[in-house]
Amino acid sequence: MTEQSIATTATTPVVTPDATSVPTIELLGEAGGGCCGGGSCGI
Amino acid sequence: MSESIKVDIWSDVQCPWCYIGKRKFEAGAALFDGEVEVEYHSFELAPDTPVDFDGSPVDYLSQRKGLPVNQVEEMLERVTGIAESVGLHYDYDSVHQTNTVISHELLHYAKAHGRQLDMKERLLKAYFVDGLHVGRIDDLADLAAEIGLDRADVVRSLTAHEFLADVKADVAQANEYGIQGVPFFVIDGKYGISGAQDPDTFAQALRQAATEKSTAAPAR
């Protein structure tokens, strides 16, 4: 799974297989604006 | 008739991007020509926050992230502007920074009574727009009563922490998915969308899921 970022621009969805997490989901596009508790996001 | 598409959304009540993302997702769902079933799940951004944090959101974020006050103020100003662009009037001067676990318990209570979506909207508005406290049982019970839930029963449930295990189960499931930030949308149990993306992104993902669902359905 990709790390969250504070980027705010949506990108064209590209299906990216995710083989590391269980249950498996496929992440569409890159992260949009979001919040995270660990400090990698601004808010 | 096509089947509805299930969307599971991980979110926290004190996440400014979650309210923005909610609006953008709703706009995307409106562009989608099909039924959408939404279920909100709990995500705690700061489970160690006290119920009554002694300070402003600027103080809190500055302390927690180790950032200069002016940088935090700029961040909040920016996100407030983005909220405004989707019709949300954030008032950070009135926000009560708090622990949100009990508000998540209320969201599970509301789900059990078929009112989760209304409760979610009310809690986000209470926190970001109305300057209300969302970390105390009495305040939460008032908000629940506003949307038609039984106030006394809400107090009973929250006092007994009837749904705390469900909150923790949501958090555990987020960990299993590898979710590190919110909002996070899982479309039809297959596709993940991270963050407050544009409505078109959500609409496109819903269409993709619907197309695959109809293709996979056995011919009759």
Written description of the protein model:
The complex is a heterodimer of chains A (43) and B (220). By secondary structure, chain A is mostly loops. Chain A has one domain. Chain A has no helices and two strands. A two-stranded antiparallel sheet of chain A has the order 1-2. Mean pLDDT of chain A is 57; it is low at 1-22. Chain B is an alpha+beta fold. Chain B has one domain: Glutaredoxin, CATH 3.40.30. In chain B, 54% of the residues lie in helices and 10% in strands. Chain B contains nine helices and four strands. Chain B has helices at residues 16-31, 57-65, 69-85, 101-112, 116-128, 137-146, 151-160, 164-177, 199-216; strands at 5-11, 36-42, 184-187, 191-194. In chain B, helix 1 (16-31) packs parallel to helix 3 and helix 4 runs antiparallel to helix 5 (116-128). In chain B, 44% of the residues are buried. The model of chain B has no long low-confidence stretch (mean pLDDT 95). The interface between A and B is large, with 33 and 46 residues. Strand 2 of chain A pairs parallel with strand 4 (191-194) of chain B.
